[in-house]
Amino acid sequence: MQDKAFTAGVVPGGLTTSKEIKILICYLLWATKEPVSPSLIVLALSEEGLVNYFECADALSDLLEAENIIISDESCVLSEAGRDIAENLSSAIPLTVRERAVRLIKEYMVVQKNRNQHKTEIIQTEDGYLVRCRLSDGSLDLFSLELYAPNRRYAQNVQRNFIINGEEFIRTTLEKLTSDPDK
After folding, report:
1. Do 86 and 119 form a contact (C-beta atoms < 8 A)?
2. 3-class DSSP state for residue 14?
3. Are 84 and 26 in contact (CB under 8 A)?
4. Is residue 129 within 8 Å of 117, Cβ to Cβ?
5. What is the architecture of the domain spanning 18-114?
6. 155 burial level (CB within 10 Å; 0-12, 13-18, 19+)
7. Residue 2 has pLDDT above 50, yes or no
8. DSSP count for the chain of H helices, then E strands
9. For residues 98 and 91, is the Cβ–Cβ distance under 8 A?
10. Predicted TM-score of the model (pTM)
């Protein structure tokens, strides 16, 4: 019974034992094949309700203590023992949870990388929200856009999608704006 994790904030189908959470963390690092910061692991998995925030932090700490994960340049890297866990025990975690977790981690990594160039701001107005999106290269704004959002959730979706897909959006928009309309 002591392996039972706190489930506050965990969505149905999320992980409810510390053992499952440890296996998932090892699997994530194995599947992404990139170092990931500990805070990003905890944030991505708990914000989306796959695990409880405190249980995830504890599981990460336990994995570090057992040397299944090593901290290198402020990021988590699997040790040989951690790779063994990921390769041999990951089937204990439902495939849908594994796939969602990998997608989330990769998405959060993109957000973290793009946040410096893709600037966004949400401003509450009388009848909703204004989302300001900018692509910045230091002191110069290369592209800017303001979009009305009727509610906070919609505004946050616009903000997140611009941070993740900003370059693609800008490329498509510029292509449409600069192409010759007669051709």
Report:
1. no
2. coil
3. no
4. no
5. Orthogonal Bundle (1.10)
6. buried
7. no
8. 6, 5
9. no
10. 0.69
Residue in this structure with the two tokens 């944030």, named with its chain if needed: 43
Two tokens at 10? 């965990």
Rounded to whole angstroms, the Cα distance separating 11 from 20 reads 15
Break the chain into its structural domains and give their ranges: 18-114, 118-178
Written as six digits, the tokens of 110 are 């993109």
- For 83-108, write each residue's pLDDT tens digit: 999 999 999 999 999 999 999 999 88
Q: β-strands 140-149, 69-72: how paired?
A: unpaired
Q: How sure is the predictor about 27, in pLDDT bands with cuts at 50, 70 and 90?
A: very high
Tokens of 141: 């704004």
Concatenated DSSP letters of 68-127: SEEEETTEEEE-HHHHHHHHHHGGGS-HHHHHHHHHHHHHHHHHHHHTTTEEEEEEEETT
133, two tokens: 């999106």
Q: Which amino acid is at 103?
A: R
Indicate whether 176 pLDDT > 60: yes
Residues in the chain: 183
